[in-house]
Amino acid sequence: xxxxxxxxxxxxxxxxxxxxxxAPGTQILWRYRENGxxxxxxxxxxxxxxxxxxxxxxxxxxxxxxxxxVLADGTPVHQEPLGTRYTRPRTVQRDRWFGTGVLKLVRPxxxxxxxxxxxxxxxxxxxxxxxxxxxxxxxxxxxSEDHFLDISVHPDRGWHWRDEDEFAQAQRDGLMxxxxxxxxxxxxxxxxxxxxxxxxxxxxxxxxxxxxxxxTVPSLPRDWDRTPAHVST
Length: 233
Known about the structure:
Layout: E1 2-3, E2 8-12, E3 18-22, E4 27-33, E5 40-51, E6 56-60, E7 65-71, E8 90-96, E9 102-106, E10 112-119, E11 123-132, E12 136-138, E13 141-153, E14 159-162, H1 164-172, H2 178-196
Parallel strand pairs: 4-13
Antiparallel strand pairs: 1-2, 2-3, 4-5, 5-6, 6-9, 7-8, 9-10, 10-11, 11-13, 12-13, 13-14
């Protein structure tokens, strides 16, 4: 094992292949590209909880400064009627995550990530399955593209689809063609199968996890939208 100055740890995997992972406590960016484009429109500084060949887990702390999309006049996206939500001009703005923190889990190559939410006092609220492009890793973090459709998973293991109206509208507006929409639905069915089988990460006890109290809230870097020199999946 070797640790680099940027917090990356090189480990030797089975077969002698070297792979780089971030050490716990490393601060990275969790980002999303705009749909159908290349511009980053969501950037969230997070702290690495675990990173290995099986899982990347990160913590987004309360009060974290983030970048989010808004309409060109500053109106929050969710306040725009659905029929014009994806066709009105947009920009981005800095804001802060004022809710309780979010633990995000993603497995290499998987077309979704799983987020854990808590109410105040660490009362576990729910899991949230965010369907998306498989995460691409680069030196400063991970990038993806959101696929609109999501799944909410309750503590009693019940679940329901979320944002099906947005998923349909994105297709009407040309942000997602039939082939991609079909792959997203297929990914959603695979995620539901994992939920109903109560496989990882749902059965792994992450709802009992707590952040290291020594961790500081990461800062949003000035070059949060920089283009990675190299990416990998």
